[in-house]
Amino acid sequence: MTDFVIASVHAAAVRTIEDMQSIQLTKQESRAFAEAMLNPREPTDRLRTAARRYIETLET
Q1: Domain spans of the chain?
Q2: Which of 9, 23, 27, 51 falls 20 to 30 Å from 34 in CA-CA distance?
């Protein structure tokens, strides 16, 4: 019984991980993603500040 339960739980865990690793987009979402990758927006001041703080934590 224990081996069956462990095998079942393992199989379910593997399926869950596989499902979480793939993203399925609609055509509209795919176009929006491609557009964002090809023409990214300028970073906001808030993002620049956060990036600066992050870099500073790496330097210390």
Answers
A1: 2-59
A2: 51
